[in-house]
């Protein structure tokens, strides 16, 4: 498959599947690993889908080789210790503890004669679980009460086996009091905890908030365009140039707001494309994806867009004080030449003139006509002369013409509007009308629109 997007939530990925890319996340990963090295406490805070779990799982992946890393997922768990005792693997702990206990066999009463009699050392340890005050023996036997205090005692002993790294995910407000107790237990181990922004914002206990703030890693608003590019490249390298413009447009318009929604969008679009194209037919897939980022016929689409704008202007006329919307293009004489202006409407006895111009290559086919539009000061309509209040162009390409306001709408949004998204069109037209709110006298004389 061209794009390898996991079909499960990040919290169920194995650590082998964790992909963490982007300069922002690499920076935060290195910061967190430094915190681990210094045996400090850190909190990863962010909205759902911003990569909190991914960051923790990546830390687990990196640290588990040389450390005893414990990852606790508190989603739908009422207590920390419940998850701890579920995740504590006795087999792995016994292997580590056994290596230390074999160094002190004699002190534990395991003599040459016992070995000669066929008593295995492992069996002997189980018989003496409660006879010696030894941290390795307690770990081997897991001789702890299955509650919060028992968890603290177990952690205190386990850190003698290896450097201990505690990663706690999906913390909720009802976990905070126990988290505070855990931090203050004097374990001297690194604790990295992740919580949603909503939970963090509700922390009222000053002592808890101070501990959380000590090394807070904020993921909200951290994602940059370079991060997004690397994320797309990581999952869809061969289609980055085709998918990235779509993702950036959706990100800028707040239609996708986090890493999870980026991956979800790509997966959904690839599912649609695969109904038309074979899985590895790159050319077919690109052709389908480009339908989102290019127009089939820019000039024809511009005329259709103008029609939709006129229809909407008529529907919102009362809200914006529009007294007249011309039902088609308006022919106007300027500098001895005749041009057709696509949009013509009247507000408060002042005229607004505009054109819709789309392009797939960044060029404007009617650039000279737009320059003429910028010169129009008065328009005669129905035997009355109106002052021109504003001149504008709606386009999907970057342009700058004196005395003309440019309302730039990305191609992806243009396609959505052409497909019937009236609400999106209304949002964009409101940006246009915002240009006229309480202008100064100087603005009235010089405003381009």
Automatic annotation (TrEMBL):
Xref: Gene3D superfamilies: P-loop containing nucleotide triphosphate hydrolases
Occurrences of domain AAA+ ATPase (ranges):
38-223
Q: What is the designated name of this protein?
A: AAA+ ATPase domain-containing protein
